[in-house]
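task queued by scheduler; priority normal; single chain, no ligands, no partner chains; default sampling; output format set to structure tokens
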Amino acid sequence: MSRLNDFLTEAGVFFLATVDGDQPKLRPLGAHLEMDGKVIFGIGDFKAVYRQLKANPKTEISACKEGGRWLRYTGRVVFETDPKYAEAMLEMMPHLRGIYNDETGYKMMCFHLEDASAFEIAMSGETEKIL
């Protein structure tokens, strides 16, 4: 998991894929952390991405970093029920407290992937399974 988390950190921004009916949706994200042996991601409970992942938890995350290497991380979303994950995410990214708080009523929803695989891929096509 550390290698996966490190890749995402180095990339800075990564892309999360969902579906809305029969329409693919892709959006940039950056909120992630490694905790309890899992890479945890954060999204807002008021966003379409949350509703899409609840309806169909299959997803893929893709990221690129300098040097022409990219990541493909595929699996099934499992939302965390313990609030410690959202609190850890907000501690790591305190600017998000302006969005996720009692005043707005918005909640940070955290998840990890299960039944997952991750591959690091070079532009040359060389592929290495990292999970």
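post-processing summary
- The chain has a mean pLDDT of 97.
- The longest strand covers residues 108-122.
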